[in-house]
C-alpha cells in the first residue's frame, strides 16, 4: 500500500522551487534602501529611505515614465478592441480559415520577441517610417491582441453556447444580444485581458528597443542603467515602481477570472 | 383554419450530410405536436428551422400562412425552451423571464409585473430574485418555460426540455406541460427521443428517421399501425415479422408488426405456433419473454408480454403461442 | 396577432441582413484585426525576409536593394556559426535546467496540492511569470555580483573555495558569477522557469489518479510507477514547456548583455547589427535562423503531441 502523501524530498524540492521564484524579487526591495550606491554589496552597510526622494526629483525618469504609460494605455485599448473582435468571430461556428487565423494571432508571441522587433524594424526601414510613439504602439498592440483574445476565448468556452441564440429567440437583435448578454458575460474576462496587456506593454523591452529609435520608455531607461549603472539604488526604486505597476493589474486580472483558466499559460 | 406551421418539401443539408431531406408536414393550430426520432434523425434541425436558427437549403416554411424564408429568428413570433435551458447566468430569474419584454422596450415596472405572473404560472412565485445557478434542474426548466411564454408566442418550441430531469420529475412535468398547453391553447412543438413521452403527450406525432418523416399521425395510429419497420421497432418495441413469418401466421407475404401484449403463451400440445424460450426479462408489471419461433415459421425471434401473476416458462423450454389475429398489422412499406 | 413581428429600426434591419448573409458579420468582425495582423505583422515578417536577401555595400555601408544570397552566406562564417551554435547550446541547456527544476513543483502542484494550497501554487507560479522581466534580471545582477549575496553567503559558510573552483572551470566560469556563462545560464533558467511549470502541471493533471493506483495495484513500486506511467504521460507537457524555454532563450538578447561574458548570442547579434553596425540585411538573416529552428522544433513537437498540453 502506497501512502498518498508527498515525500519529504518532493516537498522540499517543490517549496524550494517556489521560494527560488520569489526570493530574488525581494532583494530588489532591500537594495532600494541601501546606503551603498556604487556596488551591490551584501549585506547593505546601512539603510536609508533617501533614494525615493532622489528618484522623484530625477528629471530623466519622468519622460520615460510618461511615454511608457502612454504606450501601454493606447496599446491596451487597441488590443482590447481587436482581440474582442477576433474572439467574437471565433466564438461562432467553424468557418473556412479558422485555424490559420488562430495561428496568425498566436504567432507574435510564439516567435521570439527579437524577430517581431527586427521585422518591424525592417518594415520601418523599407517604408522610411520615422520612429514615434506610434511605431512603439504598433509592436505592442500586435502582441497584446493575443492576451485579450486568449482571455475572451477561455471565457466563451465556459459560457453556455445557447445564450446568444436564446437572446435572439426572445426577440433581441444582434446589437441588443451583444449589449445585454455577451458583454456582461465577457466583460470581466476582457477587462482582465486588458490588464494583462497593460502590464505586458508597460514592461516590454525586447520589441521596444527595435521600434523606439531614440525614444526612451521606462524599461529602456532601466536597461541603460543596468548596462551603465549610475546611482544604483535609484534604479531599484524605479524597478519597484515597474514591479508594482505591473503586479497590481496582474493580481486584479487573477481575481476577475478566478475559477477559469484565462490567465494561465501561454501568455507573454 | 390555417396551419400553425407548414413544411413543404423542406431540405437542410450540411455539406454532404442531409440532416433534413424533403420533409412535408403541417401542424394544426392549438395542437401538441411531437417530433420523435433517434439522435441525428433531423428532428432538432426541423425545430431550428421553425425558430430560424437554421435556414432551409430548399423548400418552403410557413408559419400561420406566412412564408418566413426572409424573417430572422428575433422577428418570428415563436419561442423556444432550449435543451440546456440557456438561462442568462448574469441575470436573476425575474430579469431572465422579463428579457423578451425588455428588448421590446416595455417599461421596467410593467415587465416585472408580467414576469411575476409568468413565474406564478409555472409555480415559481417568489423566486424572481434568485440567480439561475441557485436553482435545481426542474426549477431552471420552469424558468426557461416562463421566459419563453412571456412573449405570448403563437408557437412554442420545446427541444427535449425534460431530458435532463430524473424520471419522477419528468413524469410530473409531462402532465404539467400538457395541462399548460391545454390552458393556454397555443401550439406546442415538442422534440424528444423518448417514445413514451411522445405517445403520452402529443395530439399528433411525427416519427423521424434519417432526415425524413417515416410516419405522421395520432399516437394511437402510430402505435397500432406503424407504417414501416423502423416505426414499429422504434415506437414501443414491437415484434417486426418478415414476410415469410407473416405468411405463416396467416397474413399476406409482407412485413408486419405484432405487439407483444397481443400475444399469449400456453402449453405446447396442439399449438399452431411454437417457440423455444430464449430469455426472460422482468419488467415489474409484466415479464417480457423472448422466444425463437420453430423452423417451420421461419425461425424469427419474437417477444411476448406476460402479465404479472401468470406462470412463467423456463428458459430453454418449448411453449405454444397464441395471438389476436386482428392485432397482426401489415405494413404499407418495408 | 401575426406570425412575425415588425422591424423596429436599423438594428433589426442589420440583424436580418447578418442572418441572411452569415459571412457578412464574420467578415466585419475579422476585418480590422486581420488588416492589423496581416498588414503590420505579416507585412513586417515579409519585410524581414526581403531585407535578408539584400546585402550591404562593404565600402559605403549602404544597403543594396538587390536580391542576393550573399548575406545568408555570411552566416556560415566561423564567427557567425559560433554564435548560432552557442545560442543553440544555451537554449538546450536552459531547457534541461528548467525541466529538472520545474518537475517537482509541477508534480507537487498537480498531485498533492489541494484547496488553498492549489491556489497558492498557481499564483506562486503565475505571478513571477507575468511580473516585470527587467526587474527579474536586475534582481539577478544583484545576486550574482562579486560583492552580492552569493559571494557573501559563500564567505559566511566558508564555501568560497568551492565557488572559486566552479568559477575557474574553463568555458563556463569567469571572474565572478555575473560575468560567467554559468551566471547567464542561471538567469535564463530563472526567468523562463514558470513557462515550463505551467504546461508540465497541466499535462500531469491529466494523469488520472486511478491510473497511478492501477499501476500500484499491479505491483509496481513507487519508482517504477513514476518511471513507466508518470514520466511518459508528462512528456507532452515537458515538450510544450520546452517550446517556450527554447524559443525564448534563443531570441533573448537582454540577459546575455547584462549578465555574462561578452560572447554573443543570436539575439544580441541581431540587435547590434541593426543598431550600431547598421547592417540590417545581416541582422535580418540572423533573425531568420530562430524562425527556421523553431519551425523544425514545432513540427517535431507536434508529432510528439505537445500541443494538447498548451
User: Which whole number gives the mean pLDDT of chain B?
Assistant: 89
Shape descriptor of chain B reads elongated
Radius of gyration of chain A: 22 Å
Report on the biggest sheet of chain B: 6 strands, mixed
Describe what you observe in this structure.
The complex is a heterotrimer of chains A (268), B (334) and C (310). Chain A contains eleven helices and no strands. By secondary structure, chain A is mainly α. The radius of gyration of chain A is 22 Å and the shape is globular. The two termini of chain A are 43 Å apart. Chain B has a six-stranded mixed β-sheet, with helices on both faces. Chain B has a five-stranded antiparallel β-sheet with strand order 13-17-14-15-16, with no helix packed on it. In chain B, helix 3 (108-121) crosses helix 4 (137-149). The two termini of chain B are 34 Å apart. The mean pLDDT of chain B is 89. In chain C, helix 1 crosses helix 2, helix 2 crosses helix 14 (280-303) and helix 10 crosses helix 11. Chain C is built from 14 helices and two strands. Chain C is an all-alpha fold. Chain C has two domains: 10-52, no CATH class; 75-309, MetI-like fold (Orthogonal Bundle), CATH 1.10.3720. Chain A binds chain B through residues 159-160, 162-163, 165-173, 176, 180-181, 184-185, and chain B through 51, 53, 72-75, 78-80, 82-90, 99-100, 102-104, 147-148, 151.
In terms of topology, how is this protein built?
The complex is a heterotrimer of chains A (268), B (334) and C (310).
Chain A lengths: L7 H24 L18 H8 L4 H30 L6 H13 L2 H15 L5 H26 L4 H7 L4 H30 L2 H6 L6 H10 L4 H25 L12
Helix pairs in contact in A: 2-11, 3-6, 3-8, 3-10, 4-6, 6-8, 7-8, 8-11, 10-11
Chain B lengths: L4 E10 L2 E11 L4 E5 L6 H9 L6 E6 L2 E2 L10 E4 L11 H10 L5 H14 L15 H13 L5 E5 L7 H18 L2 E6 L2 H7 L2 E6 L2 E6 L1 H6 L4 H6 L4 E3 L1 H6 L7 E3 L4 E4 L6 E10 L3 E8 L7 E7 L10 E6 L5 E2 L4
Parallel strand pairs in B: 3-8, 3-9, 6-7, 7-8
Antiparallel strand pairs in B: 1-2, 1-4, 4-5, 9-10, 11-12, 12-18, 13-17, 14-15, 14-17, 15-16
Helix pairs in contact in B: 2-3, 2-4, 3-4
Chain C lengths: L9 H11 L1 H31 L2 E2 L6 E2 L5 H5 L3 H34 L4 H15 L2 H12 L4 H9 L2 H8 L13 H25 L3 H9 L4 H30 L3 H4 L7 H9 L5 H24 L7
Antiparallel strand pairs in C: 1-2
Helix pairs in contact in C: 1-2, 2-14, 4-9, 4-11, 5-9, 7-8, 9-11, 10-11, 11-14, 13-14
Offer a concise description of the structure.
The complex is a heterotrimer of chains A (268), B (334) and C (310). With 334 residues, chain B is an alpha+beta fold.
